[in-house]
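Quick bug: Methionine biosynthesis protein MetW output formatted oddly.
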Amino acid sequence: MIERDLHHVIAELVPPGSRVLDLGCGNGALLAHLRDTRQCTGYGIEIDDAKVLECVRRGVNVIQRNLEEGLSLFEDNSFDVVLQLDTLQHLRNTEAMLRETARVGRIGLVSFPNFAHWPHRLSVLRGRMPVTRALPYQWYDTPNIRVSTFADFEVLARKNGLRILESFGLQAGRTVSTWPNLLASTAVFKFERG
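Here's what came back:
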């Protein structure tokens, strides 16, 4: 999926005028899009020097920080929406970060590559780890610490007292509501504290 398409899909889930925290905000393009089209304010958190510089050039408020350190610099309910788009699979402290997301934000939005997508299943059935647009790395050269599926995230959310408000998949720029665990390369969840 093109980054621009993902931004439009996610932006529709963010209420206009929201205060937003984007965890692993990359180059700040989504926060800039939310600022320009939805009148949102907020911050991004990013560790990569070059991406922090890109955020600054876009006029996006960014804090350079390793997400593994948590979100202790923010008070409870500091944000209306906290975004974790393609970050969970890179974190060691996934469970703690989900709880922190629910603590500092009223709503959480998470997306991640769906390992249960049928091409991934077919690749594993053939005895190989998948290499696709959603998971573009060889198993020995990936920044991903873990992989997940829709069903896995639902269990993790329940275990941590989160209530899923909406879930769907994304495939080739389109929303997938029917059998997203099988038919979508990207999983998207909107949640709140239970």
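Actually, after a second look the formatting is fine. The helical segments are 3-13, 29-38, 49-58, 94-104, 118-125, 150-159, 180-183. Closing.
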